[in-house]
């Protein structure tokens, strides 16, 4: 009969430490960095005596995802590859107690919680700082063209973080009704496009204001308007501008629907969602083509009318004042038509960008759904784990329910038996298996070294042993808080994704729990 395999939990040592060896780590609760600039994450070590073999680990936690940033020892610093050239710690950090992390060229992706973890040969302490990133951009105002009986102004700005607030005001401080679009790019920076229509009643200075709410930085730009800024619109254009404006509103509404659907149906994405989004984009494309054709027809008709007027005046009156008026009329119409043509080209570019963005969003949603389906499949094999106190090393204390194990730091008086490990801090579970697929969740707290796996029931329990399949152990683990390994005859590095789900105090790191996980490892 095939030998049964058992769950194995190996724990790192936690020695009893005199109070005199303790030290303290302090850092501010919050720090704000500016996009493109350098920022410092302060961290100070307070100790009554020099630390023995000290190490500093800077760790970043974002949305539950943990990554090492920088490791600092007496002989120098070692940034992780992703942060090479962007991070540093003072060279005399251990002598001065200043082990602050300098982060160069701050980017929105740098936002998160940073842990300054300090350990010596006999003690461990840490503190954390939340880094928020702020960004501001330049502001550009422009005249868009006539809008009914008024004039449309537009203002663009990009590079803002977090989402800014926008306002248009008149010279006397009155707010205007505006149409504002705010989008976030792949770098998480916000771009703003805001429009307002002013009439002759708002003549004077019109000011555009944009505010960063995190750092309270405001930027503004103004435009002075006089009666000459409100040109008379040619008689044939108001209807077209009305249709054009309605189309812009339709396009904006359609874009909002696409964004809304993309965000709210993430959990239920399917082929039907993809088909519906593609259908919406196709309809928008057809509407733009229809509008372009209408514009071209109107342009041809206008040119024919102007040619007839010019010919008639030249034949009957010559180049009189009426002829000059015709030239002015023609110039005004041509200017209006050029503005419409330019905006149609912009609409085509907007549609293309929407199509590309939607396709990217669909791919991300598909990937997320596949990951969730895979996780759900794995969790279907989840099994219960109850630790067997009769197998635990004498330093390990098992809870009454068999769900937790704690390293007491001392050899306890426990019954001697053949099942108990006597040289390594190992413990087996009571459950065993002969075949099938199995899945467990294990909380290891903040331990930087641990191993978890299965073992044959007949493995050696006494004396030195090595975790490897040849000795009846199939285990994986974390070494020094950095790398995951499969404990083969020659260790095999694993490409694993570690997620830290909860924070525990230093005192709690003495125990490992088999309740919902603090770390979950996936290949």
Automatic annotation (TrEMBL):
Superkingdom as given in the UniProt entry: Eukaryota
Keyword Transmembrane: yes
GO biological process: regulation of cytokine production; regulation of leukocyte cell-cell adhesion; regulation of T cell activation; T cell activation; T cell receptor signaling pathway
Keywords: Disulfide bond, Glycoprotein, Immunoglobulin domain, Membrane, Signal, Transmembrane, Transmembrane helix
Pfam families: C2-set_3, PRY, SPRY, V-set
Gene expressing this chain: LOC116437141
Entry's localization field: Membrane
GO molecular function, one term: signaling receptor binding
InterPro entries reported for this sequence: B30.2/SPRY (IPR001870), B30.2/SPRY_sf (IPR043136), BTN3A2-like_Ig-C (IPR053896), Butyrophylin_SPRY (IPR003879), ConA-like_dom_sf (IPR013320), Ig-like_dom (IPR007110), Ig-like_dom_sf (IPR036179), Ig-like_fold (IPR013783)
Assigned protein family: Belongs to the SKINT family. Belongs to the immunoglobulin superfamily. BTN/MOG family.
Entry GO CC: external side of plasma membrane
Protein's membrane topology: Single-pass type I membrane protein
Protein name as catalogued: Uncharacterized protein
Native organism: Corvus moneduloides
């Amino acid at each position: 009969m095939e030998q049964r395999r058992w769950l194995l939990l190996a724990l790192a040592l936690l020695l009893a430490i005199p109070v005199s060896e303790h030290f303290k780590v302090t850092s501010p609760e919050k720090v704000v960095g500016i996009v493109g600039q350098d920022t410092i994450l302060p961290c100070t070590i307070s100790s009554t005596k020099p630390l023995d073999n000290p190490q500093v680990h800077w760790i970043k936690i974002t949305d539950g995802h943990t990554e090492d940033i920088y490791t600092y020892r007496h002989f120098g610093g070692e940034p992780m590859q992703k942060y090479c050239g962007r991070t540093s710690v003072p060279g005399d950090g251990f002598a001065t107690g200043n082990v602050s992390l300098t982060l160069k060229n701050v980017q929105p992706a740098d936002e998160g919680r940073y842990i300054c973890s300090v350990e010596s040969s006999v003690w461990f302490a840490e503190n954390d700082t939340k880094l928020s990133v702020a960004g501001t951009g330049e502001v550009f105002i422009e005249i868009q063209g006539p809008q009914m009986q008024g004039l449309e102004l537009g203002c663009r700005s990009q590079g803002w973080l977090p989402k800014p607030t926008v306002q248009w005001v008149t010279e006397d401080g009155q707010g205007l009704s505006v149409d504002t679009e705010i989008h976030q790019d792949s770098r998480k920076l916000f771009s703003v496009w805001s429009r307002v229509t002013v009439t002759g009643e708002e003549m004077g200075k019109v000011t555009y204001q944009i505010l960063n709410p995190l750092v309270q930085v405001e930027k503004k730009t103004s435009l002075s308007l006089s009666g000459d800024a409100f040109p008379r619109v040619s008689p044939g254009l108001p209807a077209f501008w009305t249709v054009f404006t309605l189309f812009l509103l339709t396009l904006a509404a359609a874009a909002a629907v696409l964004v809304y659907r993309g965000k709210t149906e993430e959990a239920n994405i399917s082929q039907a969602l993809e088909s519906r989004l593609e259908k919406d984009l196709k309809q928008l494309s057809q509407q733009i083509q229809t509008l372009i054709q209408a514009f071209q027809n109107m342009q041809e008709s206008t040119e024919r009318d102007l040619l007839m007027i010019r010919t008639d005046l030249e034949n009957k009156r010559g180049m009189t004042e009426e002829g000059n008026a015709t030239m002015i009329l023609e110039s005004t119409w041509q200017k209006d038509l050029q503005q419409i043509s330019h905006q149609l080209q912009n609409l085509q570019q907007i549609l293309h960008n929407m199509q590309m963005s939607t396709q990217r969003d669909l791919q991300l949603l598909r990937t997320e759904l596949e990951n969730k389906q895979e996780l759900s499949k794995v969790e279907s094999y989840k099994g219960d784990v109850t630790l067997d106190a009769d197998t635990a090393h004498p330093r390990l204390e098992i809870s009454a329910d068999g769900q937790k194990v704690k390293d007491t730091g001392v050899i306890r008086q426990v019954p001697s038996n053949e099942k108990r490990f006597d040289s390594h801090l190992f413990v087996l579970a009571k459950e065993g298996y002969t075949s099938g697929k199995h899945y467990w969740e294990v909380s290891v707290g903040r331990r930087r070294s641990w191993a978890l796996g299965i073992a044959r029931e007949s493995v050696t329990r006494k004396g030195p042993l090595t975790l490897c399949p040849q000795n009846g152990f199939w285990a994986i683990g974390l070494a020094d808080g950095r790398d995951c390994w499969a404990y083969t005859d020659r260790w095999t590095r694993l490409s694993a994704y570690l997620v830290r789900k909860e924070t525990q105090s230093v005192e709690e790191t003495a125990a490992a729990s088999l309740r919902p996980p603090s770390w979950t490892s996936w290949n």
